[in-house]
Predict the 3D structure of the following.
Amino acid sequence: MARTDEQLAAHLKEIEGKRDDEAAQSFDFAARTVYRVFNNEDWEHGGRFYGAWWISCPSELRPYILINGKRTVEVDYSGLHAAMLYAQDGQPIPDDPYERCLTRKDNKAERKLVKLTFNALLNADSVDRIGEIEDYSPEITGRSWDDFKWYIVSKYPEFRQHFGSGVGLLLQRKDSDLAEKVMLRFAAMRYACLPVHDSFIVHHGLQDELDRIMREVFEAEFEVSGKVGVDIGIGEVVEGAGLPVEPNPDQLLNPVGYEARLQAFRDKRGKAEDTHILPL
């Protein structure tokens, strides 16, 4: 992460009270390995990758992730679980599987609720008993939760048998297998590829390569080309967040936080080395 303390504090304040999908734990930048989590004591259920700090990083902050000091790009499979179901049934995959549910095109807030509800319907074992998704807003959808979930069901007659069937965990096994294949392709090239379930973060210069590999992996699995979406990261010059980075002589002479601890460590180490100098 390339952010000053002030910029990071400002962004954390912006997202305070929000709960991103995986932002359930604080950052531990030493957590740089991933492991797979399966469900229901069944190797065919789940299998997604967890453990690394960037997976828990809220989406608002991920564009500021740098790799080797260079900006990154995040590429994701568009409507992945819907695309998988279409592919399995031999049906054409729409450019945006969720668009049919939107009351206003390009309404990102409404699309997010459609996507979350769609996936919750696939994960649940009963449509009737499914609880309201987190951050659901009737002001955005114009419907109560019960009306909205049945509205989503009605918009996908081709998937009616999948809603309330728990098929979502089977699809998670498939999407995590796709993620593994994408990461292994990049590992073979000795390039970093950071997984965030159905999306991947790489050096911005590798965007086309990532796009190609994701499509190839999807096509090899489902014999049809998958569609991907792209989110370009913030550039290496990170001042663009509205809080310019300017030299402050007082902060340099009287550091605080990490810089203060680092300076104290260096001073202590220097004194210790001085006490161990032997006379000639």
Q: What stands out?
A: Residues 5-239 form one domain. The chain has two domains: 5-239, 248-275.
